[in-house]
Amino acid sequence: MPISKTKNFLLRYKRLPKSIQKKVEKQILFLEKDFFYPSLRTKKLIGAKDWWEFRVDYHYRMIGKKQGETIILHSVGPHDEVWRS
Question: What is the CATH number of the domain that holds 30?
C-alpha cells in the first residue's frame, strides 16, 4: 500500500527522539505491507470518514487518511498530542 506524508507529519517526525523515529519507520514498513498488521493496532477514528490511527508504541501514534489505495500520514506524536495537530 503506497504511503504519503504531509508536511505536518514530517515536521512532527523530526521533533521526535531518534529512538521513536526508528519505531515510526519500522511501523510504516509494516503499514506498507499490511494495513492491519498486528503491532499497528489499526483503528478507525469514530465520526471521521476514512481517518485511521496506527500505533507506534504504547505512547506514540500516527494518524492518517485513506484515499483510494494510498495512506496519507498527517500526524505523529504522543497519544494525547497527536489529536491536536
Answer: 3.30.2310.20
Model pTM above 0.90: yes
In degrees, rounded to 5, the angle at the alpha carbon of residue 46 between the alpha carbons of residues 11 and 16 is 20
Contacts of 71 (CB under 8 A, 6+ apart): 1, 2, 3, 4, 31, 35, 52, 64, 65
Q: Are 43 and 35 in contact (CB under 8 A)?
A: no
- Mean pLDDT, rounded, for 21-44: 97
Provide the 3-class DSSP secondary structure of residue 58: coil
Bigger pLDDT: 33 vs 1 = 33
Closest residue by Cα to residue 30 from 65, 57, 59: 57
As for how many domains the chain has, the answer is: 1
